[in-house]
Specification:
This protein is an alpha/beta fold. The protein has two domains: 186 residues, Rossmann fold, CATH 3.40.50; 72 residues, no CATH class. Helices cover 32% and strands 21% of the residues. The chain contains eleven helices and twelve strands. The chain has an eight-stranded mixed sheet, sandwiched between helices. A hairpin with a 6-residue loop joins strand 1 and strand 2. Helix 5 packs across helix 6 and helix 6 runs parallel beside helix 7.
């Protein structure tokens, strides 16, 4: 997989329409004093036509975030706080936004796949092993478009297979007769069957070899451009997001620790965890460099360390990191990070700049 940070898609403008807005989302597993805070106060905004990447190690909360936002979270998981708004107010529509978390069952059933769909990881487990491809593709059409005839549904299924570059003869095939890449593309076709505005892809290239990964990613980007849909792409591999994402949010221990335009984050990461993720895989371009892994293991969500949850693994931690919990602070336009060390350095630089600007010029300097 190429990791050329300069070969980036253009970033989404800051004033682009918001399609999906997540505010203060909290998800617990269990209840009471022993509840695990899998997602803890996450804020994200997905814009029209944007690919928003969410990265982090296993256990960081990124998949739980996806299931909570799409109302697919199963017990013992519980969404305990926050909002998920589809087309929030002022985002290009006259009517108020849709509160996804408050939708009653019938409206939620119509909302899913029509407005928001999900591509799950492990396609072999997500596809029904006893139904052929045609049946699985037309199922959503028959449920959501009752006026369509069987012939029209099959025509749409053929169109979808062509869209994801699979021979239409595979409509009669069963999941076990398809390769891993084909199964994953079938899952993408199923997500597109009703042409939703938002597609959440939860590690769609897991367990695929790098050649097939490249094919899947190329297909995702082509479909995004052709259909003008918005994508939340979840992965543990930051190198994938370096190629396809417009914006990247890095999660650790249930929180977003850095969010920035993809080019900015990949070239100048501000949080030590983001820098560690970028240093842990090789680049196929530029000079050779030594790979450096992140020491230690992700924290046990049942017993998070005090202060910054990353400080036991961080080589830049100071005393305050074991005591104070960092909040996201602005580093630049659309760039935020949650790091006490970086925040202190940014404030020191800002104060130094203000002092220089406030100091009067020495007499006679202009003449000299």
């Amino acid at each position: 997989m190429s990791t050329d940070w300069t070969a980036r898609p253009s970033a989404t403008p800051a004033d682009a329409d918001a399609v999906l807005e997540i505010r203060g989302l909290r998800v617990d597993y269990g209840a009471g004093a022993h509840a695990i805070h899998a997602v803890n106060g996450v804020d994200l905004t997905l814009h029209r036509g944007e690919v928003l990447g969410v990265a982090g190690e296993s256990g960081s909360g990124k998949s739980t975030l996806a299931y909570a936002a799409s109302r697919l979270l199963r017990p013992p998981g519980r969404t305990v706080a926050g909002e998920v708004t589809y087309y929030p107010a002022g985002a290009g529509r006259q009517e108020p936004g849709i509160d996804v978390l408050a939708l009653p069952p019938e409206r939620l059933r119509k909302f899913r796949w029509t407005e928001l769909s999900v591509v799950f990881q492990a396609a072999m487990s997500s596809l029904n092993p006893v139904l052929n491809v045609a049946t699985q593709l037309t199922d959503a059409l028959e449920a959501h478009r009752p006026g369509m005839t069987r012939r029209q549904c099959l025509a749409r299924a053929r169109e979808l297979l062509e869209l994801v570059n699979i021979d239409v003869a595979r409509l009669s095939a069963y999941p076990h007769q398809l390769s891993g890449g084909q199964r994953q593309r079938i899952m993408i076709a199923m997500a597109l069957v009703l042409e939703p505005e938002v597609i959440i892809m939860d590690e769609p290239t897991t367990s695929l070899d790098v050649v097939v990964q490249r094919e899947i990613l190329a297909r995702v980007m082509e479909l995004r451009a052709r259909l003008d849909c918005s994508v939340i792409f979840i992965t543990h591999d930051l190198s994938l997001l370096a190629e396809i994402a417009d914006t990247i949010a890095v999660m650790y221990a249930g929180k977003v620790v850095e969010i920035a335009p993809a080019e900015v984050l990949c070239q100048t990461p501000s949080h030590p965890y983001s820098a560690g993720l970028l240093s842990s895989f090789p680049s196929l371009h530029g000079p050779h460099r030594t790979l450096v892994g992140i020491p230690g293991l992700p924290p046990d969500p049942r017993a998070l360390p005090a202060g910054c949850p990353f400080h036991p693994r961080c080589g830049e931690a100071v005393a305050a990191c074991s005591r104070d919990v960092p909040a996201l602070f602005a580093l630049g336009q659309r760039h935020q990070a949650a790091c006490l060390v970086r925040e202190a350095a940014a404030h020191a630089e800002l104060n130094a700049t203000d002092s220089r600007q406030a100091s009067p010029s020495l007499p006679g300097r202009a003449e000299r």
